Amino acid sequence: GLENPYAWRFFGALAGVGSVLFIYLLARRLFDSEIAGLAAAFILTCEGVVFAQSRIATPDTFVLFFMLGCVYFLVTDRFLFSGVFFGAALACKYVASLTAVPIVLYLVWKLITRLREQPREERMKWFEIALPAGIALLYMGLAFVLVGFLGRTPDTKPGLFDGLGAADYAGWLLVSMAGGSIVAGVAGLVKQRMQAGGTGILLTPQGRTCLEIILVVAVFFIIVPGSVFLSTYIPMLWHAEYRGGFLGIGSIIHLNRQAYDFHSNLDQPHPYSSTWDVWPIMGRPIFFYLGSDESKIYSLGNPLIFWASLPALAFVLWQALRYVGARVEASRVLLLWGRLPTRQAALLFVILSYLGLWLPWAIQQETGGRVLFIYHYLPALSFAILALSYSVDWLWRREEKWGKYLAGGYLFAVAVTFAYFYPHLSALDVPGWLERTYYWDWLPNWLGFNWH
Description:
Helices cover 65% and strands 4% of the residues. It is globular, with a radius of gyration of 25 Å. It contains 17 helices and 4 strands. A hairpin with a 5-residue loop joins strand 3 and strand 4. It starts with a helix and ends in a 15-residue tail after the last helix. The strands form 2 sheets. Strands 1-2 form a two-stranded antiparallel ribbon. A two-stranded antiparallel sheet has the order 3-4. By secondary structure, the protein is mostly helical. It has one domain.
Protein backbone atom coordinates (compact mmCIF):
# COMPACT_ATOMS: atom_id res chain seq x y z
CA GLY A 1 0.00 0.00 0.00
CA LEU A 2 0.90 3.69 -0.11
CA GLU A 3 2.00 3.67 3.53
CA ASN A 4 4.10 0.51 3.29
CA PRO A 5 7.85 1.28 3.38
CA TYR A 6 8.59 -2.16 1.93
CA ALA A 7 6.57 -1.23 -1.15
CA TRP A 8 8.45 2.06 -1.51
CA ARG A 9 11.80 0.28 -1.45
CA PHE A 10 10.96 -2.85 -3.42
CA PHE A 11 11.17 -1.37 -6.91
CA GLY A 12 14.36 0.53 -6.10
CA ALA A 13 15.96 -2.75 -5.03
CA LEU A 14 14.63 -4.35 -8.21
CA ALA A 15 16.26 -1.57 -10.25
CA GLY A 16 19.55 -2.28 -8.47
CA VAL A 17 19.32 -5.95 -9.45
CA GLY A 18 18.40 -4.95 -13.00
CA SER A 19 21.47 -2.71 -13.14
CA VAL A 20 23.64 -5.73 -12.39
CA LEU A 21 22.00 -7.61 -15.27
CA PHE A 22 22.46 -4.75 -17.74
CA ILE A 23 26.10 -4.09 -16.85
CA TYR A 24 26.78 -7.82 -17.37
CA LEU A 25 25.15 -7.69 -20.80
CA LEU A 26 26.89 -4.43 -21.68
CA ALA A 27 30.38 -5.61 -20.71
CA ARG A 28 29.88 -8.90 -22.55
CA ARG A 29 28.77 -7.01 -25.67
CA LEU A 30 31.49 -4.35 -25.62
CA PHE A 31 34.41 -6.68 -24.88
CA ASP A 32 33.02 -9.87 -26.45
CA SER A 33 33.85 -11.74 -23.27
CA GLU A 34 31.79 -13.73 -20.79
CA ILE A 35 34.51 -13.18 -18.19
CA ALA A 36 34.28 -9.40 -18.55
CA GLY A 37 30.50 -9.56 -18.21
CA LEU A 38 30.63 -11.69 -15.08
CA ALA A 39 33.36 -9.50 -13.58
CA ALA A 40 31.33 -6.33 -14.20
CA ALA A 41 28.23 -7.88 -12.62
CA PHE A 42 30.19 -9.10 -9.60
CA ILE A 43 31.91 -5.75 -9.05
CA LEU A 44 28.66 -3.78 -9.28
CA THR A 45 27.02 -6.22 -6.85
CA CYS A 46 29.77 -5.49 -4.32
CA GLU A 47 29.62 -1.72 -4.78
CA GLY A 48 28.49 0.04 -1.58
CA VAL A 49 26.91 3.22 -2.98
CA VAL A 50 24.82 1.24 -5.46
CA PHE A 51 23.78 -1.18 -2.71
CA ALA A 52 22.82 1.56 -0.23
CA GLN A 53 20.96 3.69 -2.78
CA SER A 54 19.05 0.64 -4.03
CA ARG A 55 17.52 0.08 -0.61
CA ILE A 56 16.22 3.53 0.36
CA ALA A 57 13.66 4.40 -2.36
CA THR A 58 15.58 7.22 -4.08
CA PRO A 59 15.51 7.80 -7.87
CA ASP A 60 19.25 7.44 -8.42
CA THR A 61 19.16 3.67 -8.80
CA PHE A 62 16.35 3.99 -11.34
CA VAL A 63 18.49 6.43 -13.33
CA LEU A 64 21.37 3.92 -13.27
CA PHE A 65 19.09 1.06 -14.35
CA PHE A 66 17.48 2.91 -17.24
CA MET A 67 20.79 4.47 -18.36
CA LEU A 68 22.55 1.09 -18.50
CA GLY A 69 19.57 -0.39 -20.32
CA CYS A 70 19.60 2.50 -22.78
CA VAL A 71 23.31 2.05 -23.53
CA TYR A 72 23.02 -1.74 -23.83
CA PHE A 73 20.16 -1.54 -26.33
CA LEU A 74 22.07 1.24 -28.11
CA VAL A 75 25.20 -0.84 -28.74
CA THR A 76 23.04 -3.78 -29.87
CA ASP A 77 21.32 -1.47 -32.41
CA ARG A 78 17.88 -1.87 -30.83
CA PHE A 79 17.22 1.83 -31.00
CA LEU A 80 13.52 1.73 -30.13
CA PHE A 81 14.18 0.06 -26.77
CA SER A 82 17.16 2.36 -26.21
CA GLY A 83 14.95 5.41 -26.75
CA VAL A 84 12.29 4.06 -24.39
CA PHE A 85 14.87 3.52 -21.64
CA PHE A 86 16.35 6.97 -22.31
CA GLY A 87 12.94 8.55 -21.86
CA ALA A 88 12.32 6.58 -18.66
CA ALA A 89 15.69 7.73 -17.28
CA LEU A 90 14.83 11.36 -18.08
CA ALA A 91 11.50 10.93 -16.31
CA CYS A 92 13.42 9.93 -13.16
CA LYS A 93 15.93 12.80 -13.07
CA TYR A 94 17.12 15.50 -15.46
CA VAL A 95 20.73 14.39 -14.98
CA ALA A 96 19.90 11.37 -17.14
CA SER A 97 20.23 13.77 -20.08
CA LEU A 98 23.98 13.09 -19.81
CA THR A 99 23.18 9.68 -21.31
CA ALA A 100 23.22 11.63 -24.57
CA VAL A 101 27.03 11.44 -24.37
CA PRO A 102 27.33 7.67 -25.01
CA ILE A 103 24.42 7.90 -27.47
CA VAL A 104 26.22 10.53 -29.58
CA LEU A 105 29.56 8.72 -29.30
CA TYR A 106 28.12 5.45 -30.54
CA LEU A 107 26.15 6.99 -33.40
CA VAL A 108 29.17 9.01 -34.55
CA TRP A 109 31.28 5.84 -34.54
CA LYS A 110 28.54 4.00 -36.42
CA LEU A 111 28.35 6.81 -38.97
CA ILE A 112 32.11 6.81 -39.54
CA THR A 113 32.20 3.01 -39.82
CA ARG A 114 29.39 2.90 -42.35
CA LEU A 115 30.89 5.72 -44.42
CA ARG A 116 34.16 3.81 -44.65
CA GLU A 117 32.28 0.78 -45.95
CA GLN A 118 30.61 2.77 -48.74
CA PRO A 119 32.04 2.74 -52.29
CA ARG A 120 34.22 5.75 -53.05
CA GLU A 121 33.37 6.13 -56.75
CA GLU A 122 31.11 9.13 -56.16
CA ARG A 123 31.81 11.97 -53.74
CA MET A 124 29.10 13.42 -51.52
CA LYS A 125 27.34 16.48 -52.93
CA TRP A 126 27.36 19.70 -50.94
CA PHE A 127 23.66 19.56 -50.11
CA GLU A 128 24.08 16.01 -48.75
CA ILE A 129 26.36 17.54 -46.14
CA ALA A 130 24.31 20.69 -45.56
CA LEU A 131 21.02 18.91 -44.86
CA PRO A 132 22.11 16.51 -42.07
CA ALA A 133 24.48 19.14 -40.65
CA GLY A 134 21.57 21.57 -40.44
CA ILE A 135 19.38 19.02 -38.68
CA ALA A 136 22.19 18.28 -36.20
CA LEU A 137 22.58 22.01 -35.49
CA LEU A 138 18.82 22.21 -34.97
CA TYR A 139 19.00 19.48 -32.31
CA MET A 140 21.75 21.31 -30.44
CA GLY A 141 20.05 24.68 -30.75
CA LEU A 142 16.74 23.42 -29.42
CA ALA A 143 18.54 21.78 -26.49
CA PHE A 144 20.11 25.14 -25.55
CA VAL A 145 16.76 26.91 -25.95
CA LEU A 146 15.09 24.34 -23.68
CA VAL A 147 17.74 24.73 -20.99
CA GLY A 148 17.51 28.50 -21.18
CA PHE A 149 13.71 28.48 -21.01
CA LEU A 150 13.61 26.11 -18.04
CA GLY A 151 16.29 28.13 -16.29
CA ARG A 152 14.24 31.31 -16.03
CA THR A 153 12.37 31.81 -12.74
CA PRO A 154 9.13 29.84 -13.07
CA ASP A 155 6.99 32.14 -10.93
CA THR A 156 7.34 35.02 -13.39
CA LYS A 157 5.95 32.88 -16.25
CA PRO A 158 8.05 34.57 -18.95
CA GLY A 159 7.40 34.03 -22.61
CA LEU A 160 9.73 32.21 -24.94
CA PHE A 161 11.69 35.39 -25.76
CA ASP A 162 11.53 37.17 -22.36
CA GLY A 163 14.67 37.61 -20.28
CA LEU A 164 16.98 35.72 -22.61
CA GLY A 165 20.27 34.46 -21.20
CA ALA A 166 23.50 33.06 -22.65
CA ALA A 167 21.99 29.62 -23.27
CA ASP A 168 19.03 31.20 -25.10
CA TYR A 169 21.21 33.32 -27.37
CA ALA A 170 23.47 30.36 -28.17
CA GLY A 171 20.42 28.22 -28.86
CA TRP A 172 18.70 30.69 -31.17
CA LEU A 173 21.99 31.31 -33.01
CA LEU A 174 22.32 27.57 -33.64
CA VAL A 175 18.66 27.34 -34.69
CA SER A 176 19.21 30.19 -37.17
CA MET A 177 22.29 28.52 -38.60
CA ALA A 178 20.38 25.24 -38.78
CA GLY A 179 17.54 26.90 -40.66
CA GLY A 180 19.89 28.29 -43.28
CA SER A 181 21.69 24.98 -43.69
CA ILE A 182 18.44 22.99 -43.97
CA VAL A 183 16.95 25.42 -46.51
CA ALA A 184 20.13 25.28 -48.59
CA GLY A 185 20.19 21.48 -48.39
CA VAL A 186 16.55 21.13 -49.43
CA ALA A 187 17.07 23.63 -52.27
CA GLY A 188 20.06 21.64 -53.51
CA LEU A 189 18.05 18.43 -53.29
CA VAL A 190 15.17 19.95 -55.30
CA LYS A 191 17.57 21.31 -57.89
CA GLN A 192 19.21 17.90 -58.25
CA ARG A 193 15.78 16.34 -58.68
CA MET A 194 14.82 18.82 -61.39
CA GLN A 195 18.08 18.31 -63.25
CA ALA A 196 17.49 14.56 -63.16
CA GLY A 197 14.07 15.06 -64.70
CA GLY A 198 12.29 13.64 -61.67
CA THR A 199 14.06 10.28 -61.94
CA GLY A 200 17.27 8.69 -60.81
CA ILE A 201 19.04 8.43 -57.47
CA LEU A 202 19.23 11.75 -55.66
CA LEU A 203 21.62 10.82 -52.89
CA THR A 204 24.94 9.03 -52.91
CA PRO A 205 25.31 6.03 -50.54
CA GLN A 206 27.26 8.29 -48.18
CA GLY A 207 24.51 10.90 -48.26
CA ARG A 208 21.83 8.32 -47.48
CA THR A 209 23.89 7.02 -44.57
CA CYS A 210 24.25 10.51 -43.06
CA LEU A 211 20.54 11.18 -43.43
CA GLU A 212 19.63 7.80 -41.92
CA ILE A 213 21.72 8.43 -38.80
CA ILE A 214 20.22 11.91 -38.37
CA LEU A 215 16.70 10.47 -38.68
CA VAL A 216 17.55 7.73 -36.16
CA VAL A 217 18.39 10.49 -33.69
CA ALA A 218 15.14 12.33 -34.45
CA VAL A 219 12.84 9.33 -34.15
CA PHE A 220 14.46 7.14 -31.50
CA PHE A 221 16.31 9.64 -29.32
CA ILE A 222 14.04 12.70 -29.43
CA ILE A 223 10.48 11.69 -30.33
CA VAL A 224 10.43 8.33 -28.49
CA PRO A 225 12.08 9.55 -25.25
CA GLY A 226 9.96 12.71 -25.32
CA SER A 227 6.81 10.63 -25.65
CA VAL A 228 7.85 8.37 -22.76
CA PHE A 229 8.67 11.41 -20.62
CA LEU A 230 5.31 13.07 -21.30
CA SER A 231 3.39 9.83 -20.77
CA THR A 232 4.49 9.77 -17.12
CA TYR A 233 2.18 12.77 -16.55
CA ILE A 234 -0.94 10.95 -17.76
CA PRO A 235 -2.06 9.90 -14.23
CA MET A 236 -1.79 13.53 -13.11
CA LEU A 237 -3.74 14.83 -16.08
CA TRP A 238 -6.69 12.55 -15.30
CA HIS A 239 -7.50 15.15 -12.63
CA ALA A 240 -9.10 18.23 -14.18
CA GLU A 241 -7.52 20.67 -11.70
CA TYR A 242 -4.06 19.90 -13.08
CA ARG A 243 -4.88 20.35 -16.76
CA GLY A 244 -3.42 23.80 -17.30
CA GLY A 245 -2.96 24.95 -20.88
CA PHE A 246 -3.65 22.95 -24.01
CA LEU A 247 -4.03 19.25 -23.09
CA GLY A 248 -2.26 19.96 -19.82
CA ILE A 249 0.98 20.99 -21.54
CA GLY A 250 1.00 24.26 -19.60
CA SER A 251 0.96 22.39 -16.29
CA ILE A 252 3.73 20.06 -17.42
CA ILE A 253 5.92 22.98 -18.50
CA HIS A 254 5.30 24.86 -15.26
CA LEU A 255 6.09 21.84 -13.08
CA ASN A 256 9.30 21.15 -14.95
CA ARG A 257 10.39 24.76 -14.71
CA GLN A 258 9.79 24.67 -10.97
CA ALA A 259 11.78 21.43 -10.66
CA TYR A 260 14.63 22.77 -12.80
CA ASP A 261 14.73 26.01 -10.82
CA PHE A 262 14.84 24.12 -7.52
CA HIS A 263 17.61 21.72 -8.50
CA SER A 264 19.78 24.21 -10.38
CA ASN A 265 19.75 26.62 -7.42
CA LEU A 266 20.14 24.07 -4.64
CA ASP A 267 23.24 25.64 -3.10
CA GLN A 268 22.55 25.32 0.63
CA PRO A 269 25.54 23.70 2.41
CA HIS A 270 25.13 20.13 3.59
CA PRO A 271 27.48 18.30 5.98
CA TYR A 272 27.64 15.23 3.74
CA SER A 273 27.91 16.96 0.38
CA SER A 274 31.03 16.47 -1.70
CA THR A 275 32.77 18.02 -4.67
CA TRP A 276 33.04 16.35 -8.05
CA ASP A 277 36.82 15.98 -7.85
CA VAL A 278 36.80 13.70 -4.77
CA TRP A 279 34.20 11.27 -6.12
CA PRO A 280 36.71 8.99 -7.90
CA ILE A 281 38.54 8.40 -4.59
CA MET A 282 35.23 8.20 -2.66
CA GLY A 283 36.27 11.12 -0.50
CA ARG A 284 32.96 11.81 1.26
CA PRO A 285 30.25 9.19 1.94
CA ILE A 286 26.73 10.10 3.11
CA PHE A 287 25.34 9.25 6.55
CA PHE A 288 21.72 8.11 6.07
CA TYR A 289 20.42 6.48 9.21
CA LEU A 290 21.03 5.86 12.93
CA GLY A 291 18.92 3.20 14.63
CA SER A 292 18.04 2.88 18.29
CA ASP A 293 20.50 -0.01 18.60
CA GLU A 294 23.37 2.04 17.11
CA SER A 295 22.90 0.42 13.71
CA LYS A 296 23.80 2.75 10.84
CA ILE A 297 23.48 3.21 7.10
CA TYR A 298 26.11 5.00 5.04
CA SER A 299 26.16 5.50 1.31
CA LEU A 300 29.77 4.39 1.26
CA GLY A 301 31.52 3.10 -1.84
CA ASN A 302 33.72 0.04 -1.89
CA PRO A 303 37.24 1.52 -1.67
CA LEU A 304 38.82 -1.27 -3.72
CA ILE A 305 36.41 -0.53 -6.56
CA PHE A 306 36.77 3.25 -6.49
CA TRP A 307 40.54 3.32 -6.10
CA ALA A 308 41.30 0.51 -8.55
CA SER A 309 39.06 2.09 -11.17
CA LEU A 310 41.53 4.95 -11.70
CA PRO A 311 44.47 2.81 -12.89
CA ALA A 312 41.96 0.63 -14.75
CA LEU A 313 40.71 3.67 -16.68
CA ALA A 314 44.30 4.66 -17.48
CA PHE A 315 45.04 1.11 -18.64
CA VAL A 316 41.93 1.04 -20.84
CA LEU A 317 42.91 4.37 -22.40
CA TRP A 318 46.37 3.00 -23.18
CA GLN A 319 44.85 -0.14 -24.69
CA ALA A 320 42.43 1.97 -26.76
CA LEU A 321 45.19 4.09 -28.28
CA ARG A 322 47.84 1.40 -28.66
CA TYR A 323 47.50 1.47 -32.48
CA VAL A 324 47.43 5.27 -32.72
CA GLY A 325 50.54 7.42 -33.02
CA ALA A 326 51.03 11.17 -32.63
CA ARG A 327 53.81 13.60 -33.45
CA VAL A 328 54.17 17.38 -33.37
CA GLU A 329 55.68 18.58 -36.66
CA ALA A 330 58.23 21.38 -36.91
CA SER A 331 55.37 23.62 -38.02
CA ARG A 332 53.66 22.86 -34.67
CA VAL A 333 50.96 20.85 -36.39
CA LEU A 334 49.79 17.77 -34.51
CA LEU A 335 49.99 14.72 -36.79
CA LEU A 336 47.98 11.61 -35.93
CA TRP A 337 48.12 8.25 -37.66
CA GLY A 338 47.19 4.64 -37.04
CA ARG A 339 43.96 2.67 -36.83
CA LEU A 340 41.16 2.06 -34.35
CA PRO A 341 39.86 -1.54 -34.55
CA THR A 342 36.42 -2.36 -33.16
CA ARG A 343 37.78 -3.60 -29.84
CA GLN A 344 39.83 -0.43 -29.35
CA ALA A 345 36.82 1.68 -30.35
CA ALA A 346 34.81 -0.01 -27.59
CA LEU A 347 37.51 0.87 -25.06
CA LEU A 348 37.59 4.48 -26.22
CA PHE A 349 33.79 4.54 -25.95
CA VAL A 350 34.09 3.52 -22.28
CA ILE A 351 36.66 6.22 -21.51
CA LEU A 352 34.85 9.06 -23.29
CA SER A 353 31.49 8.04 -21.81
CA TYR A 354 33.04 8.04 -18.34
CA LEU A 355 34.43 11.54 -18.83
CA GLY A 356 31.18 12.75 -20.39
CA LEU A 357 29.16 11.52 -17.41
CA TRP A 358 31.58 12.88 -14.80
CA LEU A 359 33.14 16.15 -15.97
CA PRO A 360 29.89 18.10 -16.61
CA TRP A 361 29.42 18.07 -12.84
CA ALA A 362 32.56 20.18 -12.56
CA ILE A 363 30.93 22.85 -14.73
CA GLN A 364 27.70 22.62 -12.75
CA GLN A 365 29.43 22.97 -9.40
CA GLU A 366 31.95 25.63 -10.41
CA THR A 367 29.44 27.86 -12.22
CA GLY A 368 26.16 27.22 -10.42
CA GLY A 369 27.41 26.22 -6.98
CA ARG A 370 24.90 23.37 -6.84
CA VAL A 371 25.38 21.12 -3.80
CA LEU A 372 26.37 17.62 -4.92
CA PHE A 373 26.68 14.17 -3.37
CA ILE A 374 28.54 10.95 -4.05
CA TYR A 375 25.48 9.33 -5.66
CA HIS A 376 25.69 11.79 -8.56
CA TYR A 377 28.78 9.83 -9.58
CA LEU A 378 26.88 6.56 -10.12
CA PRO A 379 26.43 6.79 -13.94
CA ALA A 380 30.13 7.57 -14.44
CA LEU A 381 31.07 4.90 -11.91
CA SER A 382 29.30 2.26 -13.98
CA PHE A 383 31.70 2.99 -16.87
CA ALA A 384 34.64 2.91 -14.47
CA ILE A 385 33.42 -0.57 -13.47
CA LEU A 386 33.37 -1.51 -17.16
CA ALA A 387 37.03 -0.48 -17.30
CA LEU A 388 37.70 -2.67 -14.27
CA SER A 389 35.91 -5.62 -15.86
CA TYR A 390 38.03 -5.28 -19.00
CA SER A 391 41.19 -5.18 -16.88
CA VAL A 392 40.10 -8.32 -15.00
CA ASP A 393 39.38 -10.04 -18.31
CA TRP A 394 42.78 -9.00 -19.69
CA LEU A 395 44.53 -10.42 -16.63
CA TRP A 396 42.51 -13.63 -16.72
CA ARG A 397 43.44 -14.29 -20.35
CA ARG A 398 47.18 -13.99 -19.73
CA GLU A 399 49.11 -17.17 -20.38
CA GLU A 400 51.06 -16.68 -17.16
CA LYS A 401 49.39 -18.03 -14.03
CA TRP A 402 49.94 -14.79 -12.15
CA GLY A 403 47.29 -13.12 -14.33
CA LYS A 404 44.53 -15.42 -13.08
CA TYR A 405 45.82 -15.17 -9.51
CA LEU A 406 45.81 -11.38 -9.65
CA ALA A 407 42.34 -11.17 -11.23
CA GLY A 408 40.84 -13.70 -8.83
CA GLY A 409 42.62 -12.15 -5.86
CA TYR A 410 41.25 -8.72 -6.71
CA LEU A 411 37.66 -9.97 -6.98
CA PHE A 412 38.06 -11.84 -3.69
CA ALA A 413 39.39 -8.70 -1.99
CA VAL A 414 36.44 -6.71 -3.37
CA ALA A 415 34.02 -9.24 -1.86
CA VAL A 416 35.81 -9.21 1.52
CA THR A 417 35.78 -5.41 1.62
CA PHE A 418 32.06 -5.36 0.81
CA ALA A 419 31.42 -7.89 3.59
CA TYR A 420 33.42 -5.77 6.03
CA PHE A 421 31.42 -2.61 5.30
CA TYR A 422 28.10 -4.45 4.93
CA PRO A 423 26.88 -3.61 8.47
CA HIS A 424 27.24 0.11 7.72
CA LEU A 425 25.46 -0.30 4.40
CA SER A 426 22.48 -2.23 5.73
CA ALA A 427 21.90 -1.06 9.34
CA LEU A 428 23.13 -4.36 10.75
CA ASP A 429 24.03 -4.19 14.44
CA VAL A 430 27.56 -5.44 15.13
CA PRO A 431 29.75 -6.01 18.19
CA GLY A 432 31.44 -2.96 19.67
CA TRP A 433 34.95 -4.03 18.68
CA LEU A 434 33.96 -4.19 15.01
CA GLU A 435 31.99 -0.95 15.22
CA ARG A 436 35.05 0.88 16.51
CA THR A 437 37.15 -0.16 13.51
CA TYR A 438 34.88 1.83 11.19
CA TYR A 439 35.96 5.05 12.90
CA TRP A 440 39.68 4.58 12.82
CA ASP A 441 41.53 7.26 10.90
CA TRP A 442 42.28 5.00 7.99
CA LEU A 443 43.02 7.82 5.54
CA PRO A 444 44.47 11.34 5.88
CA ASN A 445 42.18 14.34 5.37
CA TRP A 446 44.81 16.17 3.33
CA LEU A 447 44.30 13.63 0.54
CA GLY A 448 40.64 14.60 0.29
CA PHE A 449 39.14 11.89 2.52
CA ASN A 450 36.46 12.75 5.07
CA TRP A 451 34.69 9.59 6.16
CA HIS A 452 33.45 10.75 9.58
